[in-house]
Amino acid sequence: MGTTSSASDRLAWVAGVVAAAPGERVLEVGCGHGVLVTLLAAAVGDGGRVVVVDRSARMVAAAARRNQAAVDAGRVRLVTAPLAAADLGDERFDAVVASNVRAFWTPPAPEWDVLDRVLAAGGRVVVASSLMDPGAGPRLVAGLADVAGSRGFAVSATTSTATTRPYATAAVELRRPADG
Description:
6 helices, disordered N terminus, single chain, Class I SAM-dependent methyltransferase, 29% strand, methyltransferase, 7 strands, Methyltransf_25
């Protein structure tokens, strides 16, 4: 699927930052219309799995329509619930991604407790956000470092770009320290 809209260009960039590999298990929080789901499902291939959690039944339905073949094949599973209430069972994920989901940097952010439980050893979390003003990038990183740090996560890499429209997009990767 080509990236013809600004949102698709932004989400294609986010998918590149996540860099999901064949066979990986990926959790996307806040799927919107399912554009990023499509890109992640293609990246993980037949041996991987993408689980989507969104509190909006309308967005989950849109994502399901867009990704029906992957849902039918069992490579994509959609859950309608806030992340803190989602039934994820014993699943563990190699990567978790959230794009423009403010809950991750707004205390108390119980979402980080869920990520602590479902992230596989060595796994990564990528939180991306549109930057509505030039100083937003450093504030995003500082806010994530503070909230996620209180749950044992640390910023491992920061990437930003000015090529997305209408606003630049930043993505921050976080991981647990190797001894945690």
